[in-house]
Amino acid sequence: MNEKELRRSQKGVSYARWGYLFILPFFLAYFVFTFAPQVLTIYNSFFENYREGLKQVGPNFVGFGNYVKLFTPDKSGTINILKYAGNTLTLWLLGAVPQILIALLLAIFFTSYRLKIRGQQFFKTVIYMPNLIMASAFSMLFFTLFSNVGPVNQLIQAWGWSDVPIDFFAYKGTVRGLISLMNFLMWFGNTTILLMAGIMGIDQDLFEAANLDGASSVQTFFKITLPLLMPILVYTIITAMIGGLQMFDVPQVLTKGKGMPDRTSMTLVMYLNNYLGGSKNYGMSGAISVIIFIITGVLSLVVFRTLNKKD
Amino acid sequence: MKKLIASLLVLVLAFALCVPAAYADAPEGKVFNIYAWNEEFKGFFEKYYTVPEGVTVNWVIVPSDNGAYQDALDAALINQADAKDDDKIDLFLAEADYILKYVDSDFTQDVQALGVNDFSNAYKYTVQAATDANGVVKGVSFQCCPSALIYRRSIAKDVLGTDDPAEVQAALSDWDKFNAVAADAKAKGYYMTASFAETFRPFSNNCTMPWVDADNNLQIDPQIAAWMAQTDEFIKNGYTLTAGVWDDEKNVQMFADGKTMCFFGPAWYFNFCMGNAQDPEKGCSGDWAICEGPAAHFWGGTWLLAPAGTDNPTMLADVMNTFINNEEVCSKLVSDEAQFSNNQAVNAKFAADPNYGSAFLGGQNDVAVFSEMTDNIVWQNHTIYDQLLNEGLQNSLQEYYRGSVDQDTAMENFYLYVNEKYPTIVTP
Fold first, then answer.
1. How far is CA B265 from CA A276, B275, B284, B338, B397, in A?
2. Which residues of B touch A149 (CB under 8 A)?
3. In chain A, where do the E strands start and end?
4. What is the complex's ipTM, to 2 decimals?
5. A52 to B66: CB separation less than 8 angstroms, yes or no
6. In the predicted model, is pLDDT for residue A84 greater than 90?
7. Do A171 and B102 touch (CB under 8 A)?
8. Average model confidence (pLDDT) for chain B?
9. Distance (Å) from the C-alpha of residue B369 to the closest C-alpha of chain A?
10. What pLDDT does A13 receive?
11. B71 to chain A, closest Cα gap in Å
12. Could you say which residues of chain B have pLDDT below 70?
């Protein structure tokens, strides 16, 4: 055979172009619905652009003016956007830490070949159900439950724990507690199922070998399960964090958009939303969006690096 | 020659006769879009107005909380010129708190040009509210909303010794007397009002300054400051509750076992919003009466505004004329819907009728009381910012009254809110 024919037969059949074709729809959708709007938002954040009543003001180019306004301390010296970022992180941590810990525990229990828990299907269904409820309906429910004339206060007074209704929405601790509780209830089922899938992907032979060598369950967990579960755990933590930083629906509906008391349960996206209603302030809300993007990116990188240190 | 002129004349005559007929038959839009924030007017419209043949009425209802209705309306009005005929807004409702924004813009049109010319029956302040800076009337109101002090007869008897409206009015005719009676009510175990913001409107309606001055500085009128002082005292002494005006905690006070003596509201309030009091099992219908109270004021009221660029102008004018001038419809609004119509002649008829009384109010003739009150109502010092600023101030101060923050922090939070919603207003 001559050289050309040899080369052709060595190349074989190339299916590479089909691969590109199959992933093309995702990239198209990503570009149109995520990437382009993101770029536009960053572009908008450099303009002063809002409505006064029915009159449009701008868009006028102001450079970093919106960012400067965001980071200028108000009369009492607080930089409000940092306060709301702090609120968001606190609310997220209060909900996510128990969520991941309890999900991990439940995942271990459900996949343990020693414990053999019965009725697993029932439990798995029940713990996943809160995730199916719309967050806004869930928050309305809690709002009514914990109101001054709601069932919880009626029970508390009936049991004699207090003479006057406890105003759950007047204290920072109770409002944050309620929001974190709701987030926990909605997401721990989902996390359990994910972590279970991760654990079931670990080779059973390793567990048998550990058992034969006399390892206790705690040792098995820390030396075998956790390291091999790390990829899924990192994924869970990062997605939980991205969702947590964008927390909006639960606190918005529970506090009716006010972030009471004293704006201590106002998250970054609630703050952003305040600029969109009425004044349609695309400049300021664009600036806040960019800041949320930067915070999310930085934190994700930190988590990723820390947990993947061994690699 | 003569034949030519004759035939030409006939042609011209025929043309002149046909053209107006053609205009009269010009088709209007098939879809009549109405924007509102609740179903109150929808109920009246469906009962008392006959929709012309071939036209479907489409209701777009967006609740007004947090300015959501205004946002939806703004988006639709700004888009009016580009919208398809079937999607154009043909009529929209607006409240007193934000009517100025639409009246003073190019998005509403002159109703007199559409054929709504007779305002002789309407109350003056309702026409004033819908008139722009150049004197052009852009809408009408089908409700006049003088707001009365609604009191529980049984509680008034216990606290004041009487439930007769004239005597109760004498005991509550100014704020000093009102505050003194509040202390008496508390001594007997009653609340004077069921919400910290209950008395906001009586004060704010009588302000001498608007929310912002000519240089866009935010200003707090002395009347508003007086309200804040009164509420402070009331909360400290337990004369009222920390609930908002629309909260459940206030609504449960309207049941028979409620302990609150006074509520403030117009006819639409006890028609539409006091369902708990009207409840056949747990309510107390008939145990109520009204009087003017310490300060004449109005609350809300619904205006029908004419959007520019509507494709159903004749039907629009017809709807407006029906609800302000049609005697039968206005009478039905009073007799069957317990409304206070915007027709002075009709109201005077009911006010003078000794047999007309509201069962809810224990047989009292509320139209007579409202008719007298309207003379004292003023429309003044309104701005386009009213709805959100009123709401914002109440929400921020509620945290102070609940004990979460001190008053200075509450006001700071209010200023932050103003900056977010209206960037052009300068806050102190």
1. 32, 14, 17, 13, 21
2. 248-249, 252
3. 47-52, 55-61
4. 0.80
5. no
6. yes
7. no
8. 88
9. 34
10. 72
11. 6
12. 6, 9-27
